[in-house]
Amino acid sequence: LPAGRLRERPRAAARAGVILVGGLAGSNDARYAQAEALLGPGRTFRLERQAAGFVSPTGESTTTPASPFLLAAIARPERFRQDVQAAVGLVVGEAFYRDHHAFSPTELARVCAQAQSAGADAIVTTSKDIERVDPGGLHLPLVVFRTRAVVDDAARFRTLLLHAVGRAA
Question: What is the pTM of this model?
Answer without folding.
Answer: 0.81
